[in-house]
Amino acid sequence: MKTYSENFLMGEELPWEDVGGGLSRQLMGYDGQLMLLKVKFEKGGIGYVHEHFHSQTSYVISGVFEATINGVKKILKAGDGFYVEPNAPHGAVCLEEGILIDVFSPARQDFLKK
Predict the structure, then answer these.
(1) What are phi and psi of 89, to 5 degrees?
(2) H or E element at residue 62
(3) Which of 48, 73, 50, 63 is CA-nearest to residue 95?
(4) What's the number of domains the chain is made of?
(5) pLDDT digits (tens, 9 = 90+) for 19-71
(6) Beta-bridge partners for 83
(7) Is 52 domain-assigned?
(8) CATH code at 52?
(9) Which domain holds residue 100?
């Protein structure tokens, strides 16, 4: 399995992976220490509450989201962001169709095709 992405990644050329629940993701770059993704949400799409050992930070490109981290809920819109420490329960509900940019450290190996 390749352990890093190409240097230049053109969004128009990259596939979107349907992950169910009104969500799809596009892998925008990675190595063993870092991963960047675009996550597209349909209105009503749910990123169910989950946790993982990775640090995560996310930026709202478009749309409106109700994000939950450690049981605290906030409404986020374009220009807002959030940080999730390792092992913190978190999730998001899309209130208006939109896109998040997610960054993980280390990279989410479970998101890479074997």
Answers:
(1) -65, 130
(2) strand 55-69
(3) 63
(4) 1
(5) 999 999 999 999 999 999 999 999 999 999 999 999 999 999 999 999 999 99
(6) 57
(7) yes
(8) 2.60.120.10
(9) 37-104
